[in-house]
Amino acid sequence: MKTETQAPIYLDYASTTPVDPRVASKMMEYLTPEGEFGNPASRSHRYGWAADEAVEEARSHVANLVNCDPREIVWTSGATEADNLAIKGVARFYKSKGNHIITSKIEHKAVLDPCRQLEREGFEVTYLDPSEGGIITPEAIKEALQENTILVSVMHINNELGTLNDIEGIGSIVRKHGAFFHVDAAQSTGKAEIDLSNLPVDLMSFSAHKTYGPKGIGALFVRRKPRVRIEALIHGGGHERGMRSGTLPTHQIVGMGEAFRIAQQEMSSDLVKISNFHEKFLKEAMKIEHAYINGDVNNKVPNILNISFNFVEGESLIMGLKDIAVSSGSACTSASLEPSYVLRALGRKDELAHSSIRFSFGRFTEEADVERTIEILGNVVERLRELSPLWEMHLDGVDLDAVEWDTH
Amino acid sequence: MAYSKKVVDKFEETLNNPQAFKVGKFDPKEVNVGTGMVGAPACGDVMKLQIKCEQKGNTHIIKDVKFKTYGCGSAIASSSELVEMLIGMTLEEAKEIKNKEIVDALELPPIKIHCSVLAEDSIKQAIQDFESKQ
Lengths: 408, 134
What we know:
With about 400 residues, chain A is of the alpha/beta class. Chain A has 12 helices and 13 strands. Chain A has helices spanning about 20-30, 45-65, 80-95, 110-120, 140-145, 165-175, 250-285, 315-320, 340-345, 350-355, 365-385, 390-395; strands at about 10, 75, 100-105, 125-130, 150-155, 180-185, 205, 220, 290-295, 305-310, 325, 325-330, 355-360. In chain A, helix 2 runs parallel beside helix 7 and helix 7 packs across helix 11. Chain B has about 130 residues and is of the alpha+beta class. Helices cover about 45% and strands about 25% of the residues of chain B. In chain B, strand 2 and strand 3 (about 60-70) form a beta hairpin. Classes of the chains: A alpha/beta (about 400), B alpha+beta (about 130).
């Protein structure tokens, strides 16, 4: 994507995407004195009216992509805030009806941390284990529902694995039970079809920067029929029908709207291209001995591919792959020194979690990037195994699980 | 990952030229070879260090070293740094090596200090193994 020879190949689109240049140029129209810089809440002059019009047009673009009413879209600072608003907002508003919440162990921290906070406030939270393939099934939800369950929060696409949950199946069970259903769809827009007019989902979180929009803007879908009410987290002016106060950042909102409008137009062509990359990459990567895919390969989106290369540690693999920008579930790349909690929740051995790499493709990935990555990958894994005492023991026929390790 | 240039360079040199940087193995059964292996796969790092010693006067000196390390970039760099220090040392000198020397040589960030501790443990264990055979 970048033309300088030194720039690494970017395969970390699940972390963030670049802003599409078409989106950036549209955003520029809403900043400077020559542009529409007005406060959308100013009702007394045309600067305000023009900004408001732009915000409402963007709201329609977001609503169109997921097939809901624009009045059901609430702007937030990103998917993290949308998740917080949905989870804390519903729990606190409906606390007189019950205090039990269900979520899963493989949710993003933006869902898990608000749940932890609610536990401190007296709520009871069930954290479901995923299947080995990284899926949360409707059956698992059904079993966990209690009389006092008021909210279920399950992600649509897992950010580390790319696995897809059956939100329609889960939603109908939750709705029948009379609880609310929140879905974190930060990874979904432009990658998987979402039709909120037919899905039994009450709240859904979106992010702009995973779909070629700017960072710092997202949205929460809050269903009007049947109506869902939430307690606001931020007060100060009553913007967004009281659910989220604060001056609306017109340029960010316009950026998200334009990004989602383009996503709707280009989703199918993006998908065809990325599916081809996925197929090619997977086929070649699986030629490497002892490489394992994390997550159910038959139930995932093609833009994310998470692979463990046994006997090689993930951070050193990332350092070896210095010409490629990817992320790892290895403890060494996190501040906590714990390997990925998502991979651990799948029941993978810790060493496989330490050995995992997430490759994620996107709109600006080219065939040559995929080919070059495969070439470098095979070579670096081989050289790191040359350096690995575990690989040597494996070749000597030692059962690594039977060794008594000197743990520290 | 805020590594110093020293860690990155050491890691890359070792990866690109394993023979020159003493990656490999000795037969652990040889009387003049001492082997140390520390760490655990579940923790994300395992270091295996082997020394080959030669009698000199009333002590032994380290004639040659081989190692293999599974772990993050700084674990590999720490092993490689240690190996360079060891060659030509007497066992008494090698016993005196402190992890701090590796930390300083590589400018390891605080979160990676454990890599240097592991390296120190690996030479201690290798010497112990060698001495137990004499």
